[in-house]
Fold this sequence. Notes:
The structure is a single chain. By secondary structure, the chain is α/β, with parallel strands linked by helices. The protein has helices at 30-38, 42-48, 86-102, 122-136, 167-192, 200-213, 225-231, 234-240, 295-310, 355-365, 383-388; strands spanning 2-6, 17-23, 27-28, 59-63, 72-77, 107-110, 156-160, 218-223, 248-255, 265-275, 315-325, 337-339, 345-347, 373-377. It folds into two domains: 2-186, Leucine Aminopeptidase, subunit E, domain 1 (3-Layer(aba) Sandwich); 195-388, Zn peptidases (Aminopeptidase), CATH 3.40.630. It starts with a strand and ends in a 12-residue tail after the last helix. Residues 350-357 form the Cytosol aminopeptidase domain.
Amino acid sequence: MEFSVKSGSPEKQRSACIVVGVFEPRRLSPIAEQLDKISDGYISALLRRGELEGKPGQTLLLHHVPNVLSERILLIGCGKERELDERQYKQVIQKTINTLNDTGSMEAVCFLTELHVKGRNTYWKVRQAVETAKESLYSFDQLKTTKSEPRRPLRKMVFNVPTRRELTSGERAIQHGLAIAAGIKAAKDLGNMPPNICNAAYLASQARQLADAYSKNVITRVIGEQQMKELGMHSYLAVGNGSQNESLMSVIEYKGNPSEDARPIVLVGKGLTFDSGGISIKPSEGMDEMKYDMCGAAAVYGVMRMVAELQLPINVIGVLAGCENMPGGRAYRPGDVLTTMSGQTVEVLNTDAEGRLVLCDVLTYVERFEPEAVIDVATLTGACVIALGHHITGLMSNHN
């Protein structure tokens, strides 16, 4: 999908569709008021008849509005004007994209970026609109025999900004939004890949491809089992012992700050490409979802792609800790005592508590980079979901 910005009045737009907001109760946004004025009150008359209240998520598609050059006008309910915050703005954009796609609009000019969102400027509104649009249209169909295509998918979206002075920041917002959306898509694609394809070697191949695509700033090193053994990463290695797939740790280094004093930010992602639980095997119900136990690594990969695309002036190291936790003749057992890279011994009570065994060795490994900060991302325990639900992420830190 193609995105662009422009600055112009709604009555001069020759487009398949114009998108404007309506607030609750039946209050036209400033842009909608302009269209209502040139159409001799056509839109406000519809609202008075109760066609649209303006509640969040409501839509009304108008065809051939008098004196308006565009073929259609899409009215989007935005809720109460004073309550339009970041979350609601993104929901309105999402509803807009889905409606345009479902109604066969191939192009549209969106004036929602001119709505007032508390504490946010035009750059933020355009960038969020791009990110939300890309997310709304995401689907994972790479492995489907038959791919479904919308009858007339949305191809072009133009975001209007209030003044020509804001065109530059709007264009920058699109560039940044596309980079962030590409990183999110890359992470989602990795997470959705089945475990018979996405193993530690697949993660390593993606890391190498990233270095090839951004060779100016990115290098990738893949550390195999023999090198891990030499490093003393016995805890990490034990988790993958039961699998026929080799455990591989992919280290992606991005250098955007040439200063020798610049310390990197290190991101560590748990990459259990499938977690059966090992000898302490999980219940069969829902076990197919254990392919998602590498979503920490997927998130780190997506961030590294994003950082490289944006060419941020910082140094970042991303580590994808790839392995597979399977039962087998070589699998580690409850009761085993392992020696970690830091020299500590650990007794295993449950082989399904494998994430901490992998991460502890990786966290010891990344100390060599003398990082400014370390962030590890992991689907570490289902207890977090039980405690916090599906919409809140658990965060722990040794820094206030």
